[in-house]
User: Fold nicotinamidase from Xylaria flabelliformis.
Amino acid sequence: MPTVTFPGRPLVSYPVLSLFYKVFCYGTILARLPLWVLKFSFRRGRPLPTWSFRQSLANRVFAELINVMSHVEMPIPLSLEPGKEKDRWETLEPFPKDLYRGPLESKSVEPAIIGGTWYPQKPADPAEAGPIVLHIHGGAFVVGDGRTQMMGATFDLFFKHGKVGPIFSPQYRLSSRPTPAPFPAALQDSLTSYLYLVRTLGIPGSNITISGDSAGGNLVIALLRYLVEYPELGIPQPKCAAILNPWVAPVKYLWPEIVITSNPNYNSDYLGAALCRWGAKTYIGDAPPEHPYIVPLGHPFKTPVPMLVTFGEAEILAIDGVEWIREMDRVKGNQLETYIEPDAPHDTLLVGHILGFQESSAKVAQKYGKPFTPLDLKCVKTDSNFVSNLAIVVISTKKLNLQPGLVEIEATGVAASNSRITTFVKSFINMEDDFKPALIVVDLQEDFCPPNGSLAVTNGRDVAEPINKLLELPFKLKVATKDWHPQDHISFAANHPGKQPYVDFVTIVNPDNVTESYSSRLWPVHCVQGTTGAELLPELDVGKLDKIIEKGTDVRVEMYSPFYDPFTSPRVSDSGLASLLRDHAVTDVYVVGLAGDYCVKCCAEDAAKEGFRTYLIEEATRPVDAANWPECKKSIEGSGAKIVSMKDPEVLRLMTAQ
Assistant:
């Protein structure tokens, strides 16, 4: 995993500097405004050719204003007074602490009094009022209050086009100044709001739709996970969930900025690095950055609640969001309905009236209001490309491999040659003609090869030749991995008095969870950082590699797989390889290198587990234990990976890959 950095409070956030900074930034916005007007007057100059002049200009100005607010980390005070909401305002006391368990327990962040607003009015008898919506607002965990000024336009859309019942919108605690409340405060408050409906007001769970947009969508996902993982609390499940433009990987915005700016939708969305970084660093706080209740991506779970998930096709959150949808869909029994809003930026339900996306946001609201009953649709046959002015393209659930569910791609007014939509749809539905292969060369290092390697694999150096042939092929991504151990690594027999390499084993305990452990074989000292033995073979054509990943750098754990260590609760080391593959829209992973029965095996198994079609090329690997290689291959194929030869169709197909 790339380095996670928690930046401190920026200098420009302090009062006097903040004032000067804002004046300067607003001045530069005004100075650039004529240039934007000129640029967006021409269709070619717009972020997307389908956008109007107004949409392009409004999106640009709005992005700049959000950027200024985020850089100064503008304080967002919250009040528990009714204010303009008057009798629509409700103050909620926290429930007994016993209901806030596990991830909701915190010594520094306890459940607190919050408030919320009813729309259009609180029902006279909520328990008998029929369908109720609990909507959790977005704002990167640092902005927003769920009140009328923020959410009024959104809920007007829900009432007008979605035909929904009364809505309750909680004002959860924010992680921003002046009273920062990091994780799990917002999740505690989301649970308090749901308990208020089902326990205080007696509304049946079967009458409640839980929904949320952006960061609110993140909280909805976390709340659904909590209701499943703590059934002993007796909290009823809601009828369904609407998860709108959810932020599924906040931790990525604490990675190097290049990770954010390289997002293919970065220039077509008003969300920028500054707002997301501000929200991620303050909300995560002291929690593990990859906490499953903070980062849904990579942590799928089973829920009985039907889910509607929406994204804008042009928003930065859609890239990770689509991967999360795939992960959740692979969990047997989950029910997902997915709607991709064409050429739309983030959360048009919230800001569409500002940015000029009223028509588009109205269609999202219509989807929101439909019952989320899983559908089993037949494929609607169309031409191989999108048809000009096609109203709706419905892709079959079979092709999407969603079970059960529906994905609709709106394409109104879009020409058949629009490659942007075509590419997005193809990558999303994983069509058979979608083929984006990656090559992973595992640990082709001196210490694993004769004649001088300290852990030499028989004939290990021979695999360099077929691997170089593979490097000539048009893989979308070519990655090499390296064992990169510290001298005192736990896997070295020399660091365990009386233990012998190859023969003895050691029990490795999760340093963050003493209840989780595994037994691992001990090895000779090998691939020590900075030594000749840790270098890649000189025969390997490293000039054709796109990326080199170092693994096994944590002295406390063994890490055969280049993805991550074997621990799960929590994981200790993650190289970021899975995210790298997803960022490049990889569909198929080809694994080669050393040694076949250890690091290569674990790489192939984890690639398959991550959902990639995975192939281990047998001519390009060698095992440590040749006698047990046949049994090892059975285990690899049992994980879902496939063992192939250089002459098999799976490899020959690479010759014609584009």
User: Anything to note?
Assistant: The chain is about 30% helix and 15% strand. The longest strand covers residues 613-622. The radius of gyration is 26 Å.
